[in-house]
């Protein structure tokens, strides 16, 4: 990992840094990833981990299309996304969206695919959590400072 990447990750793991990434960098990434078909992002958000995914889902309350850039951890042909919300005590809105309407589309490494989401539990959750924390250590920091169990969501490909 380059010096730049290490500095960005260190900042992202702080309260102020996670606020910036949740509120600002994701807005920039959402637009850049949509405009470039996922080839370019700001470099400030999840892109510095090499696993940016743009998930298109339906809003739980409005039913409107929502495009959310997230950090994904590949697990075979599945994608694992962590509902950490940057260490915020609340769940992110996208978590509720996927719980209500699990079918979604995702742009990952320049390829659009259809997925069905579910929340991992038990041994599967424990294994995927460890893999995700290995991918981005900030998740462990976020879990330590929030009073909720951070959900682990799995996007499984549709046939």
**Helical percent range?**
25-40%
Q: How many helical stretches?
A: 5
Shape: globular
Give the N-terminus to C-terminus distance in angstroms. Answer: 35 Å
Give the DSSP E fraction (strand runs of 2 or more residues): 25-35%
Tell me the total number of β-strands.
6
Question: C-alpha Rg, in Å?
Answer: 14 Å
Number of domains: 1
* CATH C-level class: Mainly Beta
Summed over residues and divided by their number, the pLDDT gives a mean of 83
Poorly predicted runs: none
> What are the secondary-structure elements, in order, as H or E?
HHEEEHEEHHE
The CATH architecture can be given as Roll
- CATH homologous superfamily assignment: Electron Transport, Fmn-binding Protein, Chain A
Global structural class? alpha+beta
Structure description:
The structure is a single chain. This protein has 159 residues and is of the alpha+beta class. It contains five helices and six strands, in the order ααβββαββααβ. It has one domain: Electron Transport, Fmn-binding Protein, Chain A (Pnp Oxidase, Chain A, Roll), CATH 2.30.110.10. The model has no long low-confidence stretch (mean pLDDT 83).
């Amino acid at each position: 990992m380059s010096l730049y990447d290490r500095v960005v990750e260190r900042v992202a793991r702080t309260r102020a840094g996670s606020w910036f990434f949740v509120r600002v960098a994701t807005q920039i990434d959402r637009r850049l990833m949509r405009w470039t078909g996922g080839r370019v992002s700001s470099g400030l958000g999840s892109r510095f981990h090499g696993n940016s995914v743009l998930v298109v889902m339906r809003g739980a309350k409005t039913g409107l299309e929502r495009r959310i850039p997230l950090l994904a951890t590949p697990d075979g042909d599945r994608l694992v996304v962590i509902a950490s919300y940057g260490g915020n005590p609340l769940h992110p809105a996208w978590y509720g969206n996927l719980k209500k309407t699990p079918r979604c589309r995702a742009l990952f490494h320049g390829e659009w695919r259809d997925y069905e989401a579910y929340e991992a539990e038990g041994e599967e959750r424990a294994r995927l959590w460890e893999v995700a924390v290995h991918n981005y250590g900030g998740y462990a920091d976020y879990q330590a400072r929030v009073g909720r169990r951070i959900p682990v969501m799995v996007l499984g490909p549709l046939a």
